[in-house]
Amino acid sequence: MQKAVFWRIALYAAAALVVVESVFPFVYAVATSFKTGSALFDPHMLPSTVSLGNYISLFTLAEQPFGRHILNSVMVSVAVVALSLLIGVTASYALGRIQFKGRGLLLGAVLAVSMFPQVAVLAGMFELIRALGIYNKALGLVLPYLIFTLPFTVWVLTTFMKQLPKELEEAAIMDGCGPWRIIKDVFMPLLWPALVSTGLLAFIAAWNEFLFALTFVLDNDERTVPVSISLISGASKYDIPWGNIMAASVLVTVPLLLLVLAFQKKIVSGLTAGAIKG
Amino acid sequence: MAMNSKTRTAWVFLAPMLIVLILVAVWPLGRTIWFSFTDANINDLEASKFVGFENYFGEFGLFANPNYTDGFFKSDWGTSIVNTLKFSVVSVTLETLAGLGVAMLLNQNFKGRALVRTAVLVPWAIPTIVSAKMWSWMLHDQFGVINQWLVDGGLIDHKIAWTAESAYALWTVVAVDVWKTTPFMALLILAALQTLPKDCYEAAEVDGVHPLRVFWKVTLPLIKPALMVAVIFRLLDALRVFDLIYVLTSNNNSTISMSGFVRREMIDNGYMGYGSAASTALFLIIGLCTVIYLKFARLNLGEE
Question: Which candidate, B223, B237, B270, B276, places its Cα nearest to that of B33?
């Protein structure tokens, strides 16, 4: 009996530890974001006076147009998600529902591309982006981002496509439906949970991307938020505006956090479909 | 030979994906490998000349460079390889162990489990750059809360520059990476744990088998395939690490990763050819690691 009580206590202690360890850094960042001036260097966590100064200055400083950067990130991420899903659905229909020669090989190739180190294409991509005239443009990032969102989307959607009942498709073919109609009217309604989870994962990946964004966009107005945050700096090396950095961090993380928490189950099923069933 | 209509439909539906993947993956990869055999400079790509294996084994090449007077592993390129391997092996090992622990915890029945599961997702949902900045602030050498705690607790007698001192910097990066990616591991392992048959656990409990023995003999072998897949995903991710190290340690030479080295040579210094050789070498090293791992884990990802 005593042993059971001990285990119970240990379990709750471990659970509490995990919660605190997971959440504390972000809570601390939020607390910091409301501090200005010398309060920043006060080791007490809770600010004595709540100041919105850091947030306001993010949007008023001309040399760091943060609002513009958020808009850029939203546009790039939405475009990447839309393109990946559109191309992903058609490809996964072929890979998941049609038996043809070379299917296994093609799936293997898709998986290989999704595990690719992005830096391996950096030089060729740089040349391509300049040749296409999309260097230094935020929306130009949509093209290189497809290298990691598209294979992943195809891979996960294929595993979902395979699980759909055969009878539905057969019935639709009997009714004279072509493949387009089958995808649009029969599969899409069943597939939307998978689309939501892959779409969210692709959105997060695009929203967070740093290497390509840092390399292919130099113009200050065209930057995306991860690069913007990494470049927030003060007058000197010893004068880093931590309050502004934390405010920017909180602003770009909160929407993401809300999305992830609201769609928890969908995201986890997307992640595990990509890995476990592979 | 005429294709049957099903096969034709398949290729029509695959065409957009194939075109995009050729454009964004196959072509740039091929061009990068080509650049690695030239003396291309970022400012004038057209003027590049073919130089054979000069970037790899030449006088100023990556390998067998006579200027490496202190030995290969003291050069920046050698350092970046060592850093990347150290970072990958240590952080993936720690993440797997921590992930296993968290997954076992979440697999228990207790009040507030849903809350813990939600909390665990938080580090995963935070963008890498943001977590790098958050931890830089918490680990700040003068005003950081972590130094404050350690000094107050009497664990250290002077504040430490965790992200700048070369003795600590790489391990600090590992710690932050473990914090950020343990949730991914935990969720994948948890999904595997939840597919395990309940009855064999009940049987073990009735027979009075020690829980640790059950874990070693039943749980671990059953979740091994899922664990191996999760590990390779993380390993491939860790081997290409760039952003966390670049931001957390301010693009410092002592913690530079292979991806960081490639980017520095290619973009900051403009040596497109030399940088491409490094990125091709990185590609081959990662490919080699994958093959070794797959052999070792007896996984076959191409098959379903």
Answer: B276
